[in-house]
Amino acid sequence: MRARRARRALTAVAAAVFLAFLPNTAQAAESYPDPQPVTGQQVIHDPTVIRLKSGGYVAYSTGGVIGARTSKDRVQWDDAGNAFATPPNWWYDYNPTGDPWAPDISYRAGRYWLYYAVSSWGTNHSATGVATSPTGLPGSWTDHGPAFTSDTTDSWNAIDPAVIRADGKLWMAFGSYWTGIRMVRLDPHTGKAVPGTTVEHLATRPDTPYAVEGAYIVHHGRYYYLFASYDACCAGVDSTYKIRVGRSTSVTGPYADSTGTPMLEGGGDLLLASHGRFVGPGGESVFRDRGRDVLAYHYYDADDAGTPKLGLNTLYWTEDSWPTL
Question: What is the pTM of this model?
Fold first, then answer.
């Protein structure tokens, strides 16, 4: 009897150790971490966050004229108005209300760069715009017009931009439904797509409506990691958003998950999904803070009528170089 109990105990310990070293997919099926506590203005959608050179943090998001939040400590967030006082006139060519979506902030060449999308729901007549700022703060942005566009004759949708430098070149991942995630090369001086650039294909789903969007790419070690939001957003507590990830040794792919399934065939390790009151996490981005990677995203709060709120979790890396929360 004692021998059988001992064997069962050893088996349980071995299983726990095995799970601890699996990629995050295996553990995610059991539980997901709650977001870190935040206070103040928590309402947000599609957040992009950066730690400013001047100190503190700024987050931009869908809504308003690119809504802004600022924080001194990454815990208390305050409403800071909008990136722009008024929508640039060219936005109205793509959206009758001048409503921008899913911004992406980065810093290079002594300036902050803000990419964002303008489109209308259900169409790929879309554009990704670009603006620059010396401080990264709301009200300091100069808009430079479209960086890349798509139209109804294209099989991609030029929204949800995410910019990354790789191998001395500048790239922008983008895409939503319409065959999924794509990538183009940018001119580092103008911040706009290189004329005649090849439109790379990074991820899609095998079934219509190809519900993958909100790409973000992180370089860690010898790999590039493609994070993306799968399934449906923007439906409050009925949202089915979840965050998946794959990796590649090349920024342009091919990306695959930990089982080897290509992300062009619907692959992607499950990093974060609904749990408890935290429904439909997605619209993600990643930023560096004091030497660590932090995942920023929105979720719909089931305890607050499905209001979209800011989620922040530190990213960790397993021994076999997969992200986990």
Answer: 0.90
